[in-house]
Write a structure and sequence with these properties.
Layout lengths: L1 H10 L5 E4 L9 H9 L16 E4 L1 H73 L5 E5 L2 H8 L9 E5 L8 E6 L7 E7 L10 H6 L1 E2 L5 E2 L2 H8 L5 E10 L4 E6 L2 E3 L8 E3 L2 E3 L33 E3 L2 E3 L2 H4 L13 E2 L6 H4 L8 E2 L3 E2 L2 E2 L2 E12 L3
Parallel strand pairs: 3-4
Antiparallel strand pairs: 1-2, 4-5, 5-6, 6-8, 6-20, 7-8, 9-10, 9-20, 10-13, 11-12, 14-15, 16-17, 18-19
The structure holds calcium ion (CA).
The site of calcium ion has 6 residues, from loops.
GO molecular function: extracellular matrix structural constituent; protein-macromolecule adaptor activity
Organism: Betta splendens (Siamese fighting fish)
Main location: secreted
């Protein structure tokens, strides 16, 4: 009835226009259309030109207003829906991203765990590789590995690398050494080897004098034993240093003469001419860095040339051994080489680099990070 009343009201007002039944708000029922098409309201003439039950005439400005109101209401609803949709989409995206982040976190912790396992496994592989060498010393006596090689060459087609017993000339002592019989024609007595970082090189003087570590793996043969070998009558030795970087680049430094003074001179180093690809870090770039002729120092024996102290950049150094985490070497105002260097205790557990120092071996001005090194000596002249 309300609609009918509105329509009747509309018919009495202002300019007129034709409204067809597709304007739904005005055509709620057939009876409505019937009501004003066939039964004209009292006092009003039917509008001219409007015929049949499906059309009606209402003022245009009212129609426009009603349509506009309806449009506003629809627009408002649409806007609300869009806002709600936007909010729910944002929440959905946030949820998905959070879920993916959680998945990534889980994956990254798994990768870390795997890396640790791989590291442990490769250490074990390295250790078992080392143990593959003859751990039981070969009972083949000679004065050093070069002498053993010369003695066995005529009777054994291929001399294996491994642990041999040597008895240097003019000494009462015999001891075990590792002989490299394959590398560069063999006959090398290994005096130091670093491979896996499992042996602690943070040691006092007595250990550096007597030797430590595992001959088949990482070890320091000992200054007394090396002195006995290189101090033999009418024998001269060369030194070969083989380096491997963290990214598996290899390099070497060799000296055509190598000897040590006795213990009373703190096993001072004596080097011949340098050849190689790693640079002469023993001598460095100037006399201040030169370790040739330097006596050996350890954490408890200080012969490092810093007396009472050295200035290095903005630092004052009293003990090169302390500066190099209490390792032993032929320090001279520290210098550019320390093949016995090891990482600080705090760094060790985190798989820190070995800190083996051979500073003249560089790429693009930056020293290589050395992961493995072997120092070995071989006879270059015999008393024959
Ligand atoms: Ca000092």
């Amino acid at each position: 009835m309300w609609t009918t009343t509105v329509l009747l009201l509309l018919l009495t007002l202002g300019p007129r226009c034709t409204v067809t039944e597709n304007i739904t708000s005005f055509n709620q029922s057939e009876s409505v259309g019937e009501e004003f098409s066939e039964a004209p309201v009292k006092g009003h003439k039917p509008v001219r030109g409007v015929k049949g039950r499906d059309t009606c005439s209402i003022p245009c400005d009212i129609t426009v207003k009603l349509l506009r109101d309806e449009k506003h209401s629809v627009c408002g609803q649409l806007q609300q829906s869009l806002l709600a949709f936007g909010r729910s989409t944002r929440k959905l995206i946030r949820d998905v991203m959070e879920e993916q982040q959680r998945a990534l976190d889980v994956l990254s912790s798994q990768v870390t765990e795997l890396m640790t396992k791989v590291q442990t496994l490769s250490s074990e592989v390295q250790r078992s590789n080392n143990e593959m060498y003859s751990v039981k010393p070969v009972q083949s006596h000679g004065r050093d590995c070069s002498d053993i090689k010369d003695g066995l060459m005529s009777v054994v087609p291929k001399i294996p690398s491994g642990i041999y017993i040597v008895h240097p000339e003019d000494t009462d002592s015999s001891f075990e050494v590792f002989c490299e019989m394959d590398y560069m024609d063999g006959g090398w007595t290994v005096m130091q080897r670093r491979t896996d970082g499992l042996t602690d090189f943070k040691r006092p003087w007595a250990d550096y004098a007597d030797g430590f570590g595992n001959l088949a793996g990482e070890h320091w043969l000992g200054l007394k034993k090396v002195f006995h070998i290189v101090n033999q009558k009418d024998a001269r030795f060369q030194l070969h240093i083989a380096l491997v970087s963290e990214d598996d680049v290899t390099s070497y430094a060799s000296y055509d003469d190598f000897s040590l003074d006795g213990e009373t001179q703190f096993f001072s180093l004596r080097l011949g001419r340098y050849a190689g690809s790693a640079g002469d870090a023993f001598r460095g770039y100037d006399q201040e860095q030169n370790q040739d002729t330097a006596p050996f120092s350890a954490s408890d024996v200080d012969n490092d040339g810093c007396e009472p102290s050295c200035s290095m950049g903005d630092r004052t150094v009293e003990s090169c051994s302390a500066r190099h985490n209490h390792t032993g070497w032929w320090f001279n105002r520290c210098g550019l080489a320390n093949l016995n260097g090891c990482p600080e205790d705090a760094e060790r557990g985190r798989g820190a680099p070995t800190r083996i120092l051979w500073d003249t071996w560089r790429r693009g001005g930056v020293p290589h990070a050395v992961k493995a090194v072997t120092m070995k000596i071989r006879r270059i002249a015999s008393n024959s």
